[in-house]
């Protein structure tokens, strides 16, 4: 007789981090407003993003009443790079990525350990629940024991209450390549076992970095 276990999948968008941060974190159309609040609009890199935006869309990055979708802008840059790659456009893309990372890092610092919506969410979590998020920030990662999971992947014994982030780091991230269990090439999956819970960030994360050297062991290694 087989036992069927229930499986829950939680899908979280930007509203989850906005709620947990008590509206300090931006939506995708409020990102540049947050950047201005943190004074990033005074930097040269920000000005270059603004110049590109004005040429590409005829819109002004400094106009507060004109919200700009940062994901749409990033997608536009990626499409243009596929069509007409150039060093200048690569530089603009890197400026935009740096801005995203810096804004979210800075917003996270004062609220990293505060109680909020994510704490309420985790109280109902069980081991085989899977969390799918579209957010780039680390607010929920930290609540799931991000730092402990990374230490465990580096063979430093710690304890982590939540299995989801552990399973992600040990099985799906580049850290898994450092473990004995992943020295050989894994067999192809023929079926997926639902008794394991994962934490999946479908749009990436500000602590993930990409190495362009394909021979590098740290290819796609996270921070």
Report on this structure:
This protein is mainly alpha-helical and 223 residues long. The chain has 2 domains: 9-22 and 116-201, no CATH class; 31-110, no CATH class. The protein contains 9 helices and 3 strands. It has helices at residues 14-20, 31-37, 44-57, 70-83, 87-108, 117-122, 139-143, 146-153, 163-172, and strands at 9-12, 130-133, 199-201. A 3-stranded parallel β-sheet has the order 1-2-3. Helix 4 (70-83) packs antiparallel against helix 5 (87-108). The relative contact order is 0.13. The model has no long low-confidence stretch (mean pLDDT 84).
For the sheet with most strands, the description reads:
3 strands, parallel
The percentage of residues in β strands lies in under 5%
Distance between the termini: 45 Å
Mean pLDDT, to the nearest integer, reads 84
Number of helical segments?
9
Structural class comes to mainly alpha
Relative helix content: 40-55%
Write out the strand line-up for the largest beta sheet, numbering strands in chain order.
Answer: 1-2-3
Question: So what's the overall shape?
Answer: globular
Radius of gyration of CA atoms, rounded to a whole number: 20 Å
Helix and strand succession?
A: EHHHHHHEHHHE
Identify low-pLDDT runs. Answer: none
The count of strands amounts to: 3
Counted up, domains total 2
């Amino acid at each position: 007789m087989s036992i069927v276990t229930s499986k829950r999948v939680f899908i979280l968008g930007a509203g989850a981090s906005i709620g947990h941060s008590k509206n300090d974190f931006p939506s995708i159309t409020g990102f540049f407003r947050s950047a201005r609040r943190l004074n990033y609009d005074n930097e040269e890199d920000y000005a270059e993003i603004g110049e590109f935006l004005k040429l590409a869309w005829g819109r002004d990055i400094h106009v507060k009443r004109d919200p700009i979708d940062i994901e749409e802008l990033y997608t536009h840059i990626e499409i243009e790079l596929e069509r007409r790659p150039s060093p200048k456009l690569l530089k603009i893309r890197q400026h935009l990525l740096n801005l995203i990372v810096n804004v979210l890092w800075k917003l996270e610092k004062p609220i990293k350990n505060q109680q909020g919506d994510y704490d309420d969410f985790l109280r109902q979590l069980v081991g085989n629940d899977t969390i799918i998020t579209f957010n780039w920030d680390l607010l929920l990662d930290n609540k799931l024991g991000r730092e402990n999971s990374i230490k465990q992947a580096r063979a430093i014994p710690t304890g982590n209450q939540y299995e989801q982030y552990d399973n992600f780091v040990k099985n799906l991230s580049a850290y898994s390549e450092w473990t004995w269990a992943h020295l050989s090439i894994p067999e192809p999956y023929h079926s997926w076992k639902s008794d394991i819970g994962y934490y999946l960030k479908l749009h990436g994360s500000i602590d993930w970095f990409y190495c362009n050297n394909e021979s590098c062991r740290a290819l796609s290694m996270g921070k």
